[in-house]
């Protein structure tokens, strides 16, 4: 995913190899090259600015100008600053003191929410939890069936609206009531002693007031312990604007980056932490339920720096 950035940064470091102490002009030139590398990888402009300011500050603080091996020192500084923009520490899920822990997923259609619901459920089950998946995406045709399929693959129960129910409360598909489904799903989890509930909500193709309203209503109905904003790392700068829209419209406690296996530049997704202030908690790297892991800022930085 981050080949462009890796290659560009590697080029900057190669240019510094064998150099003695760096002059202020060398430091400026290096900062400029790093800036271009970040911008070319689609890292959001405010994040790039902050990154470069930090590097220049550390350079003028003599950390760099006094270094005998500037290439190594620049790599060290870039590594530490990358870890910082990615959030520093790994942020783990917070479980409710009184179960069930309610995790709500939000994001655009196609971001990978339903797939993620299955991945998260499988992962939690592997840690001894007893998750319940709740199918509250009644917008996208097949979303309920798709959740049932991933639930089956994960070996996890799925709470879905009853398609035969014509009472107007829990109809599957558009016109059904996702808020009622979510509320009933949480009640079901309490009754059946599931310790975690994962609520899959509906997205739209783009940011949309109805979608935000619906997600906010679900949030208010289920009072989630975590709201995970799911974002496709391949959508470029839209990742940042979408994140801002969801932060303002629904709010979230964590971010999940999906499709990190893609070959797009991905830098925008790496900016989401810095722009929204919410930690990146998980990363999705494929269509299989096992293509999923906790997000570790230090490991991601190491990967980018090759
Ligand atoms: P939703 O509309 O947000 O529920 O998105 P889906 O879970 O249906 O995912 C949309 C498409 O992206 C599906 O074809 C998934 O198989 C695919 N997908 C989801 N996560 C990933 C991922 O991490 N990598 C890749 N390559 N594809 C993914």
> What's the helix-strand series?
HHHHEHEHEHEHEHEHEEH
Number-wise, the strands total 8
Query: Mean pLDDT, as a whole number?
Result: 89
Q: What is the assembly state of the chains in this entry? A: single chain
Our measurement of the CA-to-CA distance between the termini, rounded to an integer number of angstroms, reads 12 Å
Shape, principal axes of CA atoms: elongated
Number of helices: 11
Portion in helices? 40-55%
- List each distinct ligand once: guanosine-5'-diphosphate
The main pleated sheet reads as: 8 strands, mixed
Structural class: alpha/beta
List the uncertain runs.
166-171
Protein name: Signal recognition particle protein
Family: Belongs to the GTP-binding SRP family. SRP54 subfamily.
Subcellular location: Cytoplasm
Main location: cytoplasm
Can you give a write-up of this model?
With 306 residues, the chain is an alpha/beta fold. 48% of the residues lie in helices and 13% in strands. The protein has eleven helices and eight strands. It has an eight-stranded mixed beta sheet with strand order 3-2-4-1-5-6-7-8, with helices on both faces. Helix 1 packs antiparallel against helix 4, helix 4 packs across helix 11 (297-304) and helix 9 runs parallel beside helix 10 (267-276). The two termini are 12 Å apart. The model is unreliable at 166-171 (pLDDT under 50). Bound molecules: guanosine-5'-diphosphate. Guanosine-5'-diphosphate binds next to helix 5.
């Amino acid at each position: 995913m981050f080949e462009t950035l890796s290659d560009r940064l590697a080029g900057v470091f190669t240019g510094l190899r064998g150099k003695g102490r760096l002059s202020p002009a060398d430091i400026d030139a290096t900062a400029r090259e790093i800036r271009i590398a970040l911008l070319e990888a689609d890292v959001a402009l405010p994040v790039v600015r902050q990154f470069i300011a930090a590097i220049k500050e550390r350079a003028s603080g003599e950390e760099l100008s006094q270094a005998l091996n500037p290439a190594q020192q620049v790599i060290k500084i870039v590594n530490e600053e990358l870890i910082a923009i990615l959030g520093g520490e790994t942020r783990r899920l917070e479980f409710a003191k009184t179960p069930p822990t309610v995790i709500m997923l939000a994001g655009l259609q196609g971001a990978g929410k339903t797939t993620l619901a299955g991945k998260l459920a499988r992962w939690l089950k592997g840690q001894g939890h007893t998750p319940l998946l709740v199918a509250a995406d009644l917008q996208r045709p097949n979303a309920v069936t798709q959740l049932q399929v991933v639930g089956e693959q994960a070996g996890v129960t799925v709470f879905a609206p009853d398609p035969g129910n014509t009472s107007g409360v829990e109809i599957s598909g558009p016109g059904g009531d996702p808020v009622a489904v979510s509320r009933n799903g949480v009640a079901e989890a309490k009754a059946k002693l599931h310790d975690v509930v994962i609520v899959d909500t509906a997205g739209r193709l783009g940011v949309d007031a109805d979608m935000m309203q619906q997600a906010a209503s679900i949030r208010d109905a289920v009072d989630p312990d975590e709201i995970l904003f799911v974002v496709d790392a391949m959508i470029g700068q839209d990742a940042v604007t979408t994140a801002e829209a969801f932060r303002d419209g629904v709010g979230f406690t964590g971010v999940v980056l999906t499709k990190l296996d893609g070959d797009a530049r991905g830098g925008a997704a790496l900016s989401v932490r810095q722009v929204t202030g919410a930690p990146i908690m998980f990363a999705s790297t494929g269509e299989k339920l096992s293509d999923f892991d906790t997000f570790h800022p230090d490991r991601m930085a190491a990967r980018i720096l090759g």
